[in-house]
Amino acid sequence: MIHTIINNKTESFQSPSGAVLLDVIRNDLKLKGTKEGCREGDCGSCIVLWGKLKNDKMEYRTVNSCMFPLGEVEQSHIVTIEGLNDKNLNPIQQAIIDEGASQCGFCTPGFIISMLGYFLNAKTLNLQDAIASLSGNICRCTGYTSIIRAMEKIVNSLEPKKFADSYSNDRISFLIGHK
Question: Which of 124, 63, 111, 52 is CA-nearest to residue 84?
Fold first, then answer.
C-alpha cells in the first residue's frame, strides 16, 4: 500500500510494482490536466511536482510522471496542475494568459508546473536559467515566443533581493496562490 498526498488530499492506493505515477493520476484519481504525450519523458506534458521532506523542509522538483515509478511517491507530496486551482489565478497562470502563451492547451500544464518548479528552487532570479528550466517541454502551437515572454514577465515582476531572502513556503503561497 502506498500513502502519499496528491495536491491537498491524502491518498492510499495499491498498484502493480511496474506502475507509473501518470497512470494513477489520470486513471485512478481522474485528474486529467496531467497529459500523456510521448510516454518517454521527452515532451513535458506529464510534468508534476514531487516533494519530499528533507531536514524538516519540503523540497520540490519536477518529474515526468509518465516514467516516474509509483513506489517513489511513498510519503511524498505530488502537485498536479489541478493542485494550483484556487479562486484566483496564480502569477504563472496569469502571465500565460496575458502573453497568449497557450493555444491548444495540451502542453500548458507541463509548462506551468515547470515554471513553478524553477521559481520554487531558484537561488537567484536569472532569465536565462528560467528559460532553460523549460527544456524538455514541447509546444507545437505557440513557437515558444509567448511562453518566453510569460516567463520574462514573471521574472521581472519579482524583486531579486526579496526573492532570494524568501523561504520556500512564502514562495509556494505566492506562486500557487494558496494562503
Answer: 111
Cα atoms in the 13 Å half-sphere on the side-chain side of 121: 16
pLDDT of residue 68: 97
pLDDT of 123 reads 86
- The pLDDT of residue 103: 86
Nearest to 36 by CA among 65, 62, 16: 65
Partners of residue 11 on adjacent β-strands: 4
Contacts of 154 (CB under 8 A, 6+ apart): 91, 92, 95, 115, 119, 130
> 168 in helix, strand or coil?
helix
Dihedral pair phi/psi, residue 7, rounded to 5°: 60, -115
- Specify the residue for cell string 502571465: 95
Using DSSP's 3-state secondary structure scheme, residue 58 falls into strand
pLDDT above 80: residue 6: yes
Q: In angstroms, rounded to a whole number, what is the distance separating the alpha carbons of residues 83 and 132?
A: 24
**How far is Cα 35 from Cα 133, in angstroms, rounded to an integer?**
19
Task: Give the DSSP per-residue string, 98-109.
Answer: HTT--SS-SSHH
Report, as an integer, the average pLDDT of 11-25: 89
Q: What is the reported pLDDT for 176? A: 59
Where is 67: in which H helix or E strand?
none
Q: Is the pLDDT of residue 31 over 70?
A: yes
